[in-house]
Amino acid sequence: MLQVRSAPILGLGVVGWVTWALFGLTLCALVFRNVERLSPADRVTMTRALLVGAVTALVAESFVRSVPVAIIVATASVALVLDLVDGKVARRTGSVSKFGARFDMEVDAFLIMALSVYVSRSLGWWVLAIGVMRYAYVAAGWAMPWLRRPAPPRYWCKVVAAIEGIVLTVAASGLLPWMVNLVAVACALALLIESFGRDVLWQWRHRSGDAAGIDVSGAAQRAKPVKQAQQAGRV
Description:
- The chain has 235 residues and is an all-alpha fold.
- The chain has 8 helices and no strands.
- Residues 1-7 and 210-235 have low confidence and may be disordered.
């Protein structure tokens, strides 16, 4: 009997398409309430998110069969390049927002997570530390409220995030020798630990007066004029 086997589309089989569909549904649920006010920069980030979904789907598919590495690398590379675009679009259109910054950060984090899963299969499961670090940090904030106090923004954090994505994409390509990839990814992990460690250290030093993880920085600023007035004897 003649058997007809359908060829995977874009390197994706059933597992990949289901993963991508679930990713898309979750993405829609998370941004649905902001759809009416998505800025041009947010739409660029949305495009990046769909590409990250494709990378995630390919990584999931790789657990059941071989997938085209070139497609993973190319898709991740486009997503990384667009990461340079959405910020510029936001500044030029005057549409910088708290939602846009958070959206951009979460897309970056998920891409790093997906790539770390893929690379860990060749370099070792320790690579997953790169992908789970942000999520472990967020989870720790529920147990230690002082970790939920926002640290001062640092451009270095954005640089480190870009380095993680680039290094993991290169390692995923397999173009460099195994040892070179190992050292590069280990260095990337060290940079990430330093970046998170500096924020945690700042939060620890400023933990006093932080109640239930509420950002008290704004309250402190509002209280400053009152304190100055008291010192001047006007209150």
